[in-house]
Write a structure and sequence with these properties.
Structural class: alpha+beta
Number of domains: 3
Shape: rod-shaped
Strand order of the largest sheet: 2-1-5-4-3
Number of strands: 12
Order of helices and strands: HHEEHEEEHHHEHEEHEEHHEE
Length: 475
């Protein structure tokens, strides 16, 4: 029942408004009641004081009950209150109520005793006779410090409570109207808030079901609008990643299909025909070559997968030692191909803080391509330059070079300039893509400085100065 955010927000806000209105009304009514009762009491005291001054003359002489009752009745009509005149012995000398009054009786009440002691007595009581609340005030009739008697006044509080009831009814209707107006306003405002969330929910569900063409129209710049914008970015990235994954799987399938088809054909030929040992050896060499190419491809795919994991095994090492190790491992291959191998490696290079394995892989990939595509009699050069921004490492060769239209694509996965020639040389089309991911991971750049078809190429990559020193050891 309360699973809807709109319903929960509406109920919550309405309850909050009702609670605030109730608390406000309670405080307001208490304040108004005190104010009206205080005003009525003050008014009764003032008129009672005038009455006490007027009857002082009649109390100096022998009290006349009829006269005093007449005076009390006159004041009662003017004050709209019952007036009773009492002597110092608490005996009623005059009563504005001619029938059923207290004339001649004793009024032993706290208010009267207080008045005969020179104080002002007052109280509020419920009258069972008139079935209403009554305000009662008793004031002393005093002359030169002598108490001559007291005046007791009783006034109905019905007009006061009628006024408070009218205010209460007005406040209740105002509260009802406020709740109704607030309810309508909250419904529309929450709809404005929850409708985009509902759209986001539906779009997210469809995205999870594989419908990747999802886009939410951003209609505001608030938190919901920013959330919709981020959802659109996420959906676009998911779509792009899915496109890349589909293409990646297709490329991998294509790359594996070729050597597998070659191996299958060779095996069928060996099984179906009688051959001389020399011919069998040739077929077996083809099988071995294709098998080795698949191994290289799988290794490169595993390396790409490893690059996507959150593993960063850095260490501090001397780049001079690492470069010399790579050169020593590469030089024999250059000599076998009758290539000259030059190096320019300064001896005072600063220590680096990164993965030695990553840096070796980049160097071996670039040098392997240079040696692979440079014919006998050519040369390959590895050079390192220390700059203010970091290290610049170049690999230059006099090989076949690259056509200009291939330069923007050579660092993409499975891209080859000459596919047939690359496969014959054992290339997988992933080496340069792996190099780019490694170098960009460390904040560097990789690219081609210069390349001319038939005249060689110069590849480069940079290592920023931030990699020169290791972070301070942890405490």
């Amino acid at each position: 029942m309360f699973k809807s955010i709109r319903l929960r927000m509406t109920i919550t806000f309405l309850l909050l408004i009702a609670l605030v209105m109730f608390a406000t009304g309670l405080v307001l009514f208490n304040m108004l009641e005190k104010y009206y009762l205080s005003a009525a009491e003050e008014n009764l005291k003032q008129t009672g004081g005038l009455t006490a001054e007027f009857i002082l003359t009649y109390l100096r002489e022998e009290p006349d009950a009829v006269l005093l009752s007449s005076v009390a009745e006159n004041f009662s009509r003017q004050l709209n209150a019952r007036v009773i005149i009492i002597d110092p012995q608490q005996t009623v000398l005059g009563d504005s109520l001619p029938v059923g009054g207290f004339l001649g009786a004793k009024m032993e009440r706290p208010e009267v005793r207080a008045a005969l002691e020179g104080k002002t007595g007052h109280s509020i009581q419920y009258s069972e006779v008139s079935e209403q609340w009554v305000l009662q005030v008793a004031l002393p009739v005093e002359e030169d410090g002598v108490i001559r008697g007291a005046v007791f006044l009783a006034s109905s509080l019905h007009p006061v409570y009628e006024t408070l009831s009218a205010i209460r009814r007005l406040f209740l209707w105002s509260t009802f109207g406020a709740l109704l107006f607030a309810g309508v306003l909250i419904v529309f405002s929450t709809r404005h808030l929850t409708d985009p969330i509902q759209k986001l929910t539906v779009a997210a569900q469809q995205l999870a079901e594989g419908q990747l063409d999802q886009h939410i129209t951003v209609q505001s710049q608030d938190e919901i609008g920013r959330l919709a914008g981020q959802f659109n970015i996420m959906a676009a990235r998911v779509k792009e990643m899915n496109r890349r994954l589909t293409r990646f799987v297709a490329d991998v399938s294509h790359e594996l299909r070729t050597p597998l088809s070659s191996i299958h054909i060779c095996l069928q030929t060996l099984q179906g025909y009688e051959m001389e040992p020399a011919e069998q050896k040739e077929f077996l060499e083809d099988i071995s070559h294709e098998t080795q190419r698949m191994i290289y491809l799988v290794e490169d795919l595993l390396e790409i997968t490893r690059r996507q994991e959150v593993t960063d095994k850095r260490e501090t090492f001397s780049p001079v030692d690492l470069l010399e190790e790579v050169v020593d491992a590469t030089r024999p291959r250059a000599e076998r191909k009758e290539l000259q191998f030059f190096t320019e490696i300064p001896a005072d290079l600063p220590d680096l803080y990164l993965s030695m394995t990553d840096l070796k892989r980049v160097l071996f990939n670039l040098l392997d391509n240079a040696l692979k595509y440079t014919p006998a009699g050519g040369w390959v050069k590895l050079a390192v330059v220390q700059e203010k921004e970091g290290l610049l490492i170049t690999v230059q060769d006099t090989g076949s070079g690259l056509p200009e239209e291939a330069l923007p694509h050579i660092f993409k996965r499975f891209y080859r300039v000459d596919k047939a020639h690359s496969r014959h040389l054992g290339g997988t089309g992933l080496g340069l893509a792996i190099c780019r991911e490694i170098i960009e991971h460390y904040g560097g750049e990789i690219g081609v400085l210069e390349s001319r078809e038939g005249a060689g190429s110069t590849f480069y990559f940079t290592l920023p100065a931030a990699l020169f020193s290791a972070p301070p050891p942890a405490d």
